[in-house]
Amino acid sequence: MNRSSGGTNFVITSRQPWEEKQLGSNIRDMARTLSVNHSVLFVNEPLDWSARLSDKSGRAQRRDKFMAENQGRHLIQAEENLWVLSPKTLLGSFNWLPDTPFYDWANRYNGTVLSNEIKAAIQELGWKSFVLINDNDMLQGFYLKELLQPDVYVYYLRDNFLAVDFWKRHGARLEPLLMSKVDLVASNSLYLANQAARYNPRSVYVGQGCDLKMFDPTAITEIPADIAALPRPRIGYAGALTGLRLDGDLIGNLARQRPDWQIVLIGATDDSFPTEQLNALPNVSFLGAKTPREIPAYLAAMDVLINPQILNEVTIGNYPRKIDEYLAMGKPVVAGKTETMALFDEHVYLAENTDQFIARIDDVLNGNVLSSPEERIAFAWEHTWENSVGLLTDAIDQFRVSKSKTAPSISKIV
Predict the structure, then answer these.
(1) Angle, CA of 349, 392 and 107, to the nearest 5°
(2) How many whole angstroms separate alpha carbon 103 and alpha carbon 332?
(3) Contact 195, 158 (CB under 8 A)
(4) Is 112 left (phi over 0), alpha (psi -120 to 50) or beta?
(5) How much is the CA Rg of the chain, to the nearest whole Å?
(6) Residue 133's beta-bridge partner residues?
(7) 48 near 72, Cβ under 8 Å?
(8) How many CA atoms lie within 13 A of 271 on its CB side?
(9) Which residues of 32-60 are buried (b: 16+ CB within 10 A; e: fewer)?
(10) Which of 35, 314, 354, 385 fits as disulfide partner to 253, beta carbons 3.0 to 4.6 Å?
(11) 248-257 and 354-365 are packed helices; what angle lies between their axes, rounded to 10 degrees?
(12) What angle do CA 373, 295, 381 make, to 5 degrees?
């Protein structure tokens, strides 16, 4: 049976598993948006030997639970026009190998195993052709163009993973090569699009989509008790609390230099974040992780929202979705200055150090703001997944047209 919605068929290889819905996910949101007009096969990140033997991250356990909830089926229809494939074969854990031809052989083996499962799912769905979108995986996705032969192969560059040692070990060589051979590189930040253009002239900026339906300030009827008990002004951050992306020293400096401010941190912490040092400060409050549905009420209770992002290889091209969430609540925002954040400079104060953060927060508290709450909300709502996916599909269509024009005619072949 041909299970197609009538539009283009899309296969998406994901690094953000379908089942981990407690965290926001670019690629899941993109898949859902595409499925409105197209058929989508979402390929869960395959497990490897290390995930089974030493499951510190809990990935294998979560996958097992997901499989059990779906009666052990590896291919399921999760939503209308959207199927999820959870590969059954364990891949080899080869990242420890030196960057030699033997690694390439092993990596191609993984790619072959993965592509065979994808081919079987495509056959079951009855698809004859498809567009492949690779979610920022320069390792397992390196050979998929040759192995799957999609109509169009898109590399979705949404983060600079080469700043992480795991990816850098082989990705420093492979990612530029992969970007050179794919049909399109689509990026969610201008910085990353410019970086990709060094390797592929068909590098396009598709913007960042955000699902802002929950971020409606008019829907907030009650402020949570734990934040309501804190004194004002409340200077807040909501998101993952990790030293890889946040400047813990800057947060500590804000608290120490302005003891009259209450610094409110919402989110799960990791070992790299200076939780103990900050928790010792009397005007810093950790309220813990909250569910996505709880976050808007906490944002509504803040006087100023901040994104004290540390500037490094990981964050320099990063598009922080939380800024749109902050603005959608109509809140004034002060954030770290990066090339990507220049997009927000009419509505967000940008700062490069502690003194600038303090000065800009003071501006807000004194009523000197860049835009009104209504203007902030309207700006945030320009960044929808419909707009981002529309730019992506337009780029795919344009590539197909240009490809058809350059393809040799039958007479020329003869």
Answers:
(1) 100
(2) 50
(3) no
(4) alpha
(5) 23
(6) 12, 154
(7) no
(8) 0
(9) bbbbeebbbbbbbbbbbebbeeeeeeebb
(10) 354
(11) 50
(12) 40
What torsion do the CA atoms of 297, 300, 304, 307 make, to the nearest 10 degrees? 40
Helix H or strand E encompassing 50: helix 49-53
Q: Is the dihedral of CA 36, 37, 39, 45 positive or negative?
A: negative
Question: Hunting for tokens 């089926």 — which residue is that?
Answer: 73
Q: Which two tokens stand for residue 6?
A: 């009538």
pLDDT value for 412: 38
Phi-psi region of 207 (alpha: psi -120 to 50; beta: other; left: phi over 0): left
Indicate the DSSP class of residue 4.
Answer: -
Are 228 and 301 contacting, i.e. CB atoms less than 8 angstroms apart? yes
Backbone angles phi, psi at 48, to 5 degrees: -125, 180
Q: What's the N-to-C CA distance of the chain in angstroms?
A: 36
- Tell me if 118 sits within 8 A of 9, measured CB to CB: no
Closest CA to 173 of 245, 114, 92, 97: 97
Residue 116, judged by CB atoms within 10 A of its CB (0-12, 13-18, 19+), counts as middle
The residue behind tokens 């804190």 is: 230
Residue among 40, 338, 354 nearest 190 (CA): 338
Distance from C-alpha of 281 to C-alpha of 277, rounded to nearest angstrom? 7
pLDDT averaged over 10-residue windows placed end to end, the chain, 414 residues:
67 91 78 96 94 80 91 94 95 95 97 97 96 96 97 94 90 97 94 94 92 92 95 95 91 97 94 93 96 94 95 80 95 92 94 96 96 96 92 95 68 34
* Contact between 90 and 47 (Cβ < 8 Å): yes
